[in-house]
Amino acid sequence: MSVRLQFGTAASGLDYRLRATAFGLVVQDSRLACVRVDRGEGSYFDLPGGAVDGDETEQQAVVREFLEETGMRVRPLSRIAEASQYFRKSDGEPINNTGGFWTVEHLSLDPAAKVEADHQLVWLDPHQALAQLRHDAHAWAVAAWLRRRA
């Protein structure tokens, strides 16, 4: 039986929908690609990625999500971690994101391919990302990735 790390706290009385996800880590010039999601005063940083749709694999989801959120074309390299995160979406829906974190290779950037207007590609120092990422699961994956690189 494999152990899955669970982050966040489930609020009592809420039914958290399990959602398969995949997120990616790519570095350029010693900086980690992140997305700043514009929610006005409630804006936050995430790793690029998101829900696995339909029959997609995690790798396919990472490629699609990177393109939609950042305009970046990537190639998944290796799955480095798996974790789950309880949280409430901006519409209040309780979700438990569960899935893999992948190292990815940056192939090209096509800003016209980006479709999520509220997402902005930002390059953060990995240690800054540890402190600023919204989800503990994302920060944990960055820490695990940093330890492997050391």
Describe this structure in words.
There is one protein chain. The protein is α+β, with helices and mostly antiparallel strands. It has three helices and nine strands. A five-stranded mixed sheet has the order 1-7-8-2-6. α2 packs antiparallel against α3. The longest helix is centred in the last third of the chain and has 14 residues. The two termini are 29 Å apart. The model has no long low-confidence stretch (mean pLDDT 94).
What's a concise summary of this model?
The protein is an alpha+beta fold. It contains 3 helices and 9 strands; from the N terminus they run ββββββαβββαα.
Output the number of helix runs. 3
Mean pLDDT: 94
Low-confidence stretches: none
- Order of strands, main sheet, comes to 1-7-8-2-6
Q: Work out the helicity level.
A: 10-25%
Give the SSE string. EEEEEEHEEEHH
> How far apart, in Å, are the first and last alpha carbons?
29 Å
Largest β sheet strand count, sense and barrel closure: 5 strands, mixed
Roughly how many Å is the radius of gyration?
Answer: 15 Å
Amount of beta strand:
35-45%
The coarse overall form would be globular
Which structural class fits the helix and strand makeup?
alpha+beta
